[in-house]
């Protein structure tokens, strides 16, 4: 059995609770385009079943705006809307300090200290990842990750396994030496489809998702003074997910005892 060498992180909902900023950015882009579309939190929770902002807008048009006729061809029109949304999103990240989720910075730093490699596998647009890492961690944080696999770099987005396969190929690692960190059912299916054992941290948008074949499900990665709550899978006697816990989780899951 391979030893754990690599941690692969999803971004939205996992590194930080970004989806609320995405939702607000979509709505601002719609208003900027003189559209009366408004994605409530409840509707956005449903639309998140479709990964990728452009794909999500097209899905919304097909399911909620069947009579809408785009002024240009649909792909061009949606691409323009999404580019405006991404600009709004990255500006709002630069303006405000969005905190990483509990335990994320602590675990990233501990992983680097332990010599574990870090990668990112996300559906979101690369510019959004850059904005988050630079403004929520530091300007050199991009360099913490051996690969940042994001958005349309692969033909099929999550729940397809493509983005995780792309990241592992770029890092020249095999699935049995990795752990994936995700927040959603689509993300879990993508990671599991690529053969990865997966740790789930839930959030308001994903807490009711099906995480049946996750190695472990927690509310957050926790902090020593803000204990995590283990919701499913392997138990851990520590108040938060630390490197030893990851080694144990990886070994247990790979041996089928998880
Ligand atoms: C989450 C997504 C993304 C974001 C919006 O990605 O599905 O589409 O919701 O970002 P992940 P874009 O959880 O894989 O990080 O508008 O740039 O797609
Ligand atoms: Mg996510």
UniProtKB/TrEMBL annotation:
<dbReference type="Pfam" id="PF00702">
    <property type="entry name" value="Hydrolase"/>
</dbReference>
<protein>
    <submittedName>
        <fullName>Xylulose-1,5-bisphosphate phosphatase CbbY, converts this Rubisco inhibiting byproduct to xylulose-5P</fullName>
    </submittedName>
</protein>
<dbReference type="GO" id="GO:0016787">
    <property type="term" value="F:hydrolase activity"/>
</dbReference>
<dbReference type="InterPro" id="IPR023198">
    <property type="entry name" value="PGP-like_dom2"/>
</dbReference>
<dbReference type="InterPro" id="IPR036412">
    <property type="entry name" value="HAD-like_sf"/>
</dbReference>
<dbReference type="InterPro" id="IPR044999">
    <property type="entry name" value="CbbY-like"/>
</dbReference>
<dbReference type="InterPro" id="IPR023214">
    <property type="entry name" value="HAD_sf"/>
</dbReference>
<dbReference type="InterPro" id="IPR006439">
    <property type="entry name" value="HAD-SF_hydro_IA"/>
</dbReference>
